[in-house]
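Query structure, 269 C-alpha cells:
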C-alpha cells in the first residue's frame, strides 16, 4: 500500500515532465535562451524573462534569508516563553498559509502605491521575500531545535556567551536544514505568478532592466501571457518556456540537496 501511494504521487509528476520534455525540448536552442522576443512574443527568445526571474530570485534571497534566519534565531534561542511569543508564532504559521495572490495585492498596496516604489524589481523582490519569510522562519526554527541541547550546555559551561554559543555550537549544525528550507522556499517563489503580476512583471518588455526601480519580464508571467493572451503562438514555444521554468526550479532544488548532503557529510555526530 505504501508503494502504491508512492506511485500515485510519482506518476503525475513523471507524466508532466515527460510531456514537457517531449513537446518543449525541440524549442530549447541557444538562440531561444539568449535572444529578445520579437513579433509580439511569437518569435525570438526568452532572455529578458530569464534575467528578470534571476534578478527577482537574487533580491528575494538577499532580503528574506537574513531577516528570516535572524528571526528564527531570536525566537529559538533568545525569546522567553511569553504570550507575545506564542502570538508571534501563531501569526507566522498563519501567514505561511495565506494565498500568494493576497501577498501580491498587499505588496501592490504597500510597496507600489504607499511607498512609491512603483512597479519595479524592488517591489517584486520585497513582496516575494514577505511571502517567503514564514516558511524560512519555520524551517530555520525546526533546524535550530534539532541541534541537541547538550551542545549549548557544553558551550555555556566553558564560559562562552549566548551569541558565541549560537554562532559556534548551534548554527554550524543547523545550517543544512536552514539552507534546505530557504532554497526550497526560494524555488517556490521563483515560480509564483500572482505576486509579481501586481508588483513587477511587464507584459512585453524586450529589453533588460537597468536598476531595481525598473520593470522586468519574468518566466511565470511570460508563460501565462503567451498561453492565454497572445494568439497564434507556437505550442512548442509555450512548452519550451514551461520547460525552462521547471528546469530552473528543479535546478534550485538540486542545489539545495547537494548543499545539504555536503554539509551533513562533514558532521561528526
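Result returned for the query:
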Amino acid at each position: 500500500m505504501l508503494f502504491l501511494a508512492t506511485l500515485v504521487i510519482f506518476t503525475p509528476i513523471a507524466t508532466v515532465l515527460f510531456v514537457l520534455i517531449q513537446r518543449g525540448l525541440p524549442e530549447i536552442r541557444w538562440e531561444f535562451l539568449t535572444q529578445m522576443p520579437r513579433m509580439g512574443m511569437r518569435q525570438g527568445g526568452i532572455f529578458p524573462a530569464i534575467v528578470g526571474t534571476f534578478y527577482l530570485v537574487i533580491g528575494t534571497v538577499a532580503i528574506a534569508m537574513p531577516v528570516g534566519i535572524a528571526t528564527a534565531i531570536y525566537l529559538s534561542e533568545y525569546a522567553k516563553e511569553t504570550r507575545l511569543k506564542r502570538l508571534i508564532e501563531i501569526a507566522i504559521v498563519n501567514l505561511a498559509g495565506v494565498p500568494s495572490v493576497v501577498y501580491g495585492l498587499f505588496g501592490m498596496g504597500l510597496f507600489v502605491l504607499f511607498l512609491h516604489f512603483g512597479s519595479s524589481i524592488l517591489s517584486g523582490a520585497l513582496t516575494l521575500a514577505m511571502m517567503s519569510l514564514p516558511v524560512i522562519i519555520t524551517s530555520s526554527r525546526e533546524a535550530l531545535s534539532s541541534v541537541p541541547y547538550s551542545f549549548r550546555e557544553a558551550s555555556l559551561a566553558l564560559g562562552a556567551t549566548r551569541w558565541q554559543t549560537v554562532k559556534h555550537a548551534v548554527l554550524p549544525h543547523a545550517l543544512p536544514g536552514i539552507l534546505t528550507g530557504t532554497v526550497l522556499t526560494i524555488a517556490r517563489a521563483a515560480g509564483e505568478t500572482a505576486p509579481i503580476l501586481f508588483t513587477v512583471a511587464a507584459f512585453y518588455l524586450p529589453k533588460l532592466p537597468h536598476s531595481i526601480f525598473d520593470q522586468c519580464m519574468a518566466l511565470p508571467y511570460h508563460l501565462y501571457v503567451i498561453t492565454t493572451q497572445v494568439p497564434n503562438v507556437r505550442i512548442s514555444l509555450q512548452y519550451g518556456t514551461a520547460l525552462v521554468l521547471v528546469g530552473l526550479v528543479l535546478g534550485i532544488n538540486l542545489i539545495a540537496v547537494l548543499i545539504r548532503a555536503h554539509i551533513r557529510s562533514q558532521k561528526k555526530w
